[in-house]
Amino acid sequence: MSVVVIGSANLDLVYEVERIPAPGETVLSRGLASFPGGKGNNQAIAAARAGAETRFIAALGRDAAADQLAAQARDAGITLLDRRVDAPTGTAVIFVDRKGENSIVVNSGANAALVDLTEAELAEIAAADVMVVQLETPLETVTAAIRAARAADTVVVLNAAPSGAFPEELLGEVDILIVNEHEAAELAGEPAGTGERSLMSVLTAHGCDVVITLGADGAYVGGRGIDAVKVAAFPVEVKDTTGAGDVFVGAFAASLDRTADERSLVAATEFATAASAIAVQRKGAGPSIPTLDEVRSLLDS
């Protein structure tokens, strides 16, 4: 499977805290570490480590952080098509509490300069089996990428995260939508707490297949004419949930059969659930991403 990811690349600054600070509260950190991150970067690494031939289209600054991210991408076996722009490489400040839950603030930096896809980038989209996009880069770029992929018969996987405005009509051009329950409710225009099956019904009406991730409760998979199927999570001890959703998306794309039928969707979701279960047992977004052999070992256990 060949996968092209278009998206963000950040340097993550991770603070270990007893609890996530409330508004106006100061808490002391037990530790600080830096890791390569960003949704696009994480998803590309996850796809590559899951065995896919992976290309990553991103915008980086002309700084040491960019060099670090580029080296890490090469080490993961990714073909990186990076623009170097006159803006700082994106960063994220992440607070991780003792339960492994996190709170994240992102400065887009160079990621905002990923606009006006080049002929070479459009050719990469056309050549891939699957294209993955998220919402940490300009919406105009996401829109152009989706339409280029549709024209080339490349399977479009949209991770509609972080939450934000997204054109309802564009969902009809997406093959597979991956969202968590909060993102699903926002896209569906429903209140928080709406049941997954109701959300699935609203979102699949746009013509796309849908995966709703539920963290420790697994995931729901549904689609056009397909009843929602629950995929169970793996019971694990959580150390850090940072990047777990990105690991899910990248692993899903790498394991997806190009037919994208019901059987393939469920199998890819099971594979992705196993990959993210391994990731949450480790610290840091990039370093937590498992290999193909590790995921297969968990699935076989």
Strand order in space, largest sheet: 5-4-1-8-9-10-11-12-13
- Characterize the main sheet: 9 strands, mixed
> Could you spell the SSE succession in H and E letters?
EEEHEHEEEHEHEEHHEEEHHH
Gross geometry: globular
Q: Average pLDDT, to the nearest integer? A: 93
Beta-strand residue fraction: 25-35%
Query: How many strands?
Result: 13
Low-confidence stretches: none
Oligomer: single chain
What separation lies between the terminal Cα atoms?
25 Å
Helix count from the secondary structure assignment: 9
Structural class: alpha/beta
Instruction: Please estimate the helix content.
Output: 25-40%
| Gyration radius from CA atoms, angstroms | 18 Å
List keywords for this structure.
single chain; 4-stranded mixed sheet; 301 residues; 9-stranded mixed sheet; globular; alpha/beta; 13 strands
How would you briefly describe this protein structure?
This protein is α/β, with parallel strands linked by helices. It contains nine helices and 13 strands.
Task: Please tell me about this protein's structure.
This protein is α/β, with parallel strands linked by helices and about 300 residues long. It contains 9 helices and 13 strands. It has helices at about 40-50, 65-75, 120-125, 140-150, 180-190, 195-205, 245-255, 260-280, 290-300; strands spanning about 1-5, 10-15, 30-35, 55-60, 80-85, 90-95, 100-105, 130-135, 155-160, 175-180, 210-215, 220-225, 225-230. The strands form 2 sheets. The protein has a 9-stranded mixed β-sheet, with helices on both faces. Helix 4 (about 140-150) links the parallel strand 8 (about 130-135) and strand 9 (about 155-160). The radius of gyration is 18 Å and the shape is globular.
